[in-house]
């Protein structure tokens, strides 16, 4: 779905432009890091790092497309960035990205817990399904021309919050006993990952609400358009790359506790003889 946007000042246009560019670099750098860091983990935990790598790769691609769409949607005319009607900004990339990556993020967390097979399968299926539902239900509100709190944006936002609350409920009730079963160090890291998830995921619905309080959104509210894009972008960097680093720390701590030793030293030829 494409969006009609207002004209912007160079400062506003460039802020979003640079944030998108920074995010592409971060996602691809995180991809390389997650792929290379796998060798430091016990084989059992490598799959959660693979999922982290997939998430940032998918996001890097989508930010590349979002960046291209943003660039094409504006032209500098007389010192202002003027919106181009024939090349509207495509906001669907963001939701397609979330649809693919949000279920993967919950899978990542469940995988790193290292639960028995039966338990983890059901947890992943329930959380993954709720995550996908949350994104699908939020989309009609995001692209609706009616951005008011009591209108379409507010309604879809409210419906989408139901699966969101369900995810939080599962994470903070069912998962608590699992976390308590882990050693002190791992339990601390796991509850940090859960808190990071709450803090970053909780920010998306807040960003989603910005247009509800901006009369005339989007064509008459350049500030709200910029705030929404910058807000979602910061959340994505933290929720994907930042969260992946924490998942790595958990997987590393668990690997060490389970006796895994990284064999990094390449022995000189003479030592092998
Ligand atoms: C929407 C619509 C309004 C209500 C709620 C929402 C929640 C969105 C979330 C998105 C998380 C995205 C992540 C992406 C990173 O890969 C859809 C904005 C509750 C929680 C983690």
TrEMBL record:
The record marks 108 as: Primary proton donor. Keywords: Chromophore, Membrane, Photoreceptor protein, Receptor, Retinal protein, Sensory transduction, Transmembrane, Transmembrane helix. Contains one covalently linked retinal chromophore. Its main location: membrane. Pfam families: Bac_rhodopsin. GO terms for molecular function: light-activated monoatomic ion channel activity; photoreceptor activity. The record marks 105 as: Responsible for spectral tuning. The record marks 97 as: Primary proton acceptor. GO terms for biological process: phototransduction. It is a multi-pass membrane protein. One of its GO terms (cellular component) is membrane. The modification N6-(retinylidene)lysine is found at residue 240. The chain crosses the membrane at residues 15-35, 47-64, 98-116, 123-141, 153-172, 193-210, 230-251. Belongs to the archaeal/bacterial/fungal opsin family. This is Xanthorhodopsin.
